[in-house]
Amino acid sequence: MRNHPRITGFLLQALTHEYTAVQQYLTQSSLCTLWGMAEWASSFRNEAREELEHAGMLAQHLLLLGIAPGAGQMRPPRPGRDILEMLEQDRDIEAAAVDLYAEALAFARRLREEKIAYLFGRLLQDEQDHLQHLDSVIVRLETGGHGNV
Fold first, then answer.
1. 4: three-class secondary structure by DSSP
2. Which structural domains are found in the chain, ordered by start?
3. What Rg value do the Cα atoms of the chain yield, rounded?
4. Which terminus of the chain has fewer CB atoms gathered within 10 Å of its CB, N or C?
């Protein structure tokens, strides 16, 4: 795996994004705990764990390149006033991740960097799956049904 500056930039941007998502989900989990919504709190904690796993994979690739992993400027968490608003904010975060990973994957493929392309492809698939799930939960909530993350 070469140390291409743009690949390094994608890795660092992705790491910042994943840590931002962890912070967002943990904040939402804490708020749901305060509201007495244990099931939602647990769901948001699980999402935070998944994003933290993503951050770990990115950190490993940075270390393989000889770069100390570090997040840049993280977006402050936006807790939301209710579950629907939380999910819509999460959707925005996940949609941004899909865009980032799609661009990073395309670039890695152009460079024929298979290991990094595999990483970005895996992250892209995870985020696309999560985005699709969020969309279905949001639709259920908007139509008066019960949704669960």
1. coil
2. 5-142 (1.20.1260.10)
3. 16
4. N
Count of residues making up the chain: 149
* Pairwise CA distance, residues 92 & 103, whole Å: 17
What does the angle CA 83 – CA 127 – CA 75 come to, to the nearest 5 degrees?
Answer: 65
Comparing 8-17, 65-74, 83-92, 123-132, the range with the smallest average pLDDT is 65-74
Model pLDDT, residue 2: 66
φ, ψ of residue 33 to 5 degrees: the values are: -60, -45
User: For 66-106, what is each residue's pLDDT tens digit?
Assistant: 999 988 888 889 889 999 999 999 999 999 999 999 999 99
